[in-house]
Structure formats: C-alpha cells, structure tokens
Task: structure prediction
Amino acid sequence: MDIFRIEGPVRLCGTVSINGSKNASLPIMAAAILAGGESTLSAVPDLSDISIFSQLLEQLGCQITRSDDGQLCIDSTVIDNPVGDYEIVRRMRASICILGPLLARKGYAEVSMPGGCAIGDRPVNLHIRGLRELGAQIQLKNGYIVAEAPNGLIGKDIFLGGPFGSTVLGTANVMMAATLAKGRTVIESAACEPEIADLANCLNKMGAKISGIGSPRLIIEGVKQLQPVQHEVIPDRIEAGTFMVAAAITKGELKITNCWLDDMMAVVDRLRHIGITVEAAKDGCVVTHSDGIKPADITTQPFPGFPTDLQAQFMALLSLAQGNSIIIEKIFPDRFMHVAELNRMAADLRKEGSVVIVAGVKKLIAAPVMASDLRASAALVLAGLAAEGTTTVSRVYHIDRGYEKIEVRLNPLGAKIKREQTQVV
Ligand code: EPU
Result:
C-alpha cells in the first residue's frame, strides 16, 4: 500500500492543466454499450476507477484499448455477458450505470446491488424506479438487480427527484435507457450537472434525440438504434476546484488551464467571498491568495449549487480562516470522515449531524492521517501542504481513484510529496 509523505508548509506557484473528468468519463464509457461498434473517447483520465470500469466492460464482452495519447477505444460489438459482477461493483459504485444501457440494448441485465460506502448509504432506488417506469421488470435476487425488458422499453413521463434532490447517475441510467425506448420520455427533476450534459451531448452525437440538456427537464425521443461515437470528455471541475484550493491554502498563485469557470460559479463565489482572487484567463483562471482567509458558510447542493465533491477540500481551507465557518452537507449527510483526521492536524472542527462548525486556527500541524474516500483524501493532502512538519497520508489508493498522479502534478508547482510503499501489517 502506498503512502504520501508531505513536507509543509509550501507555497504553490505555476501552471497546471486540468485533466478530463472522471465523473463524465464513467457514464460515457457505459453509453458505448448502447451502440454495437467501436467508440473512441479522448481526454479520459488515467485513473484506477477508469481501469476498473474498463474491466467491467470487458467482462460484458467489450474490447478496450488505450493508446499512448490517452484515447480510449471501446469496441462493444459483442456484449455476451450482461452481468455486473459483485467483485467489481463493490469496488466502484459507478458500475451501476451499465444497468440502463444493457437493458436498452440486450433487454436483460444483472448488476450487483451496490453496498454502502464511506460517504453514506447511497441507495439506487431512484435508478430502479426510473427504469421500472420505462417498462422494465426488476427484481432483487441474491444481491443482484435482475432487470428484464424482452419487448423493449417504452417512453414515459418520469419524476426522478428524491429526498436529496436529483440523482446524477440515476439520471444517466434512465436517460441512456430512454434513448432506445419506443416513444418519448420526459425526465423531470433530472440532474443538471455538467457531466450529465456531456453524456447527453455524447448520446446525441450517437444519434439520440435529447433536448433540455443542462436543465432539470430532459426530453428524450426514442430512436431505433445508435452509432458508435468519437467524443472528447469535458475537463474535471472537481479536479480544477481542488487545485484552486491548493493555491488558496498554500498562499500561492496558480494558473489553471483547461478549466471551465462557467461550470464552477458556486465554487468561485465562495473563494472570492473568503478573499481569494480568482481571475478569468484564457482557457481557465488564475487563483491567488495574498491576505488571510475570511470565514464562510457553505451548503452543498446539486448543480449549480456548491458541489459535495469539494466539501472536504474547502473544509481543510476554512480550517485556516480568521473566524468560524459553517459547512452544511445536503447531498451526503454523513460525508464527514475527514473531520476526525483534520482534527488530528490541529484543525478545530465540530460535527453536529450533517453540519460542521469550523473554528479557524492559526496553523495546521503535521500528523499521520488516513485517507477514507477520494475527496476526503484530497482534503488531507491539501492540509498537508499547509501544515507545519511532515504529514503522512496512508491508503492513498483512494486518491488515485480520482486524481491522476497527484504528487507528480503538485511537485513541479512547489509541493514536496513523496510516494512510498509500506508493508501491510
Ligand atoms: N439517492 C437516492 N436514491 C438513488 C440515488 C441517489 O436517494 O437512487 C440520493 C443519494 O443518497 C444522495 C443524493 O441522492 O443523497 C445524490 O446522489 P447521486 O445519485 O446524485 O450520486 P451518484 O450519482 O451516486 C455522483 C458522483 C459522486 C458525487 C454525486 C453527487 C459519479 C461517478 N459519482 O454520484 O462523485 O458526489 O454524484 O454530485 O459521478 C466522487 O467523485 O468523489 C463522487 C462521490
């Protein structure tokens, strides 16, 4: 198992280019199932989650090749095993988004029911409800969701909202299934996330007829078949936000390119509110921190609200604010595994249900800490850059799921991060 040894504090300066989005790539890879043939995706990041998803598609029968220039070629001519195996699904919950495409193309799918994870329960009831509305018969057998639609799916008006608002992958699943359904589907309370818009744009390139893209009302006119596609995945707004926090927490200056600021208004708003300068620049922005950090209140919400995937990173940043901040988690109320770890680094955080009160401290102090999930581990790395001393972050495989060689990206900017292998005891 790898660990990071992070020397701090450092000041980051320089230019970093943002990679393609993990959370856009995964459902778009699933969309390749819908059309038999060879689809080519570019800007797919080289992450362990992408490798796991590739293995999943290979188990279905697809052939996958990755070229040196980062293009991912998915040949889905043959899908002869429409089964999402437990061993893969338990490692990556996004595996659930093969359910809709398999059902639409093969009329049958078996996908292991995802279990709980470090950020909460994460049910899939809305995925199942949406697909049932399209006419699928779905049962749970031996921990597997078994879905059948031998005579095809039928378009329907579907309300897909749940207690926490829209669902990102639920929208992806139902939208993908509806592209090949007979007639018109309306998804009301659809997720508006840029990753869903990218998926919809990709599906339209494949021959789907989706309108209302980027709005909470998606209209999908079913078509008989889709064609393979060539598509470039959008930049990763969460990676961009993480680098913005890296500039801010190290009192640095970073030029961030291949970054779509229009998709990040809520994040930029909070950064400016706390005194960080974010200036739009060609192809991205420049983020500078010169004065101290002011406190702020942050509530995570579905897009265009503040993203839950940046909550942990902002908590690390606000722990150094001059005053008290409040962070309210409205998407995953239990997504606070990083709180106790940040407190080990001398942050002053108090959790009350789905709220964390962040009392600003003058400095963070290095400590051995443990990564628990992807974004929590990013927060620990950010804290380590600012903390005095040597922070060790264990279980960095969590961070490798969503950030491509983060130490190789941060070190040229001034970070001092070493990846070391340790023996598991
Ligand atoms: N929900 C339900 N029922 C469902 C589905 C979701 O009640 O059937 C609830 C969830 O429990 C949660 C809320 O709805 O309270 C939103 O969950 P959503 O379905 O939108 O999450 P997801 O699609 O499973 C994606 C991202 C997550 C990101 C969330 C929210 C991917 C692969 N995953 O998950 O990304 O946090 O949307 O934006 O796109 C990450 O990258 O670190 C990550 C966890």
Observations:
- The first strand starts at residue 2 and ends at 8.
- Residues 23, 26, 94, 122-127, 162-164, 167-170, 308-309, 331-332, 374-375, 402 surround EPU (CB under 6 Å).
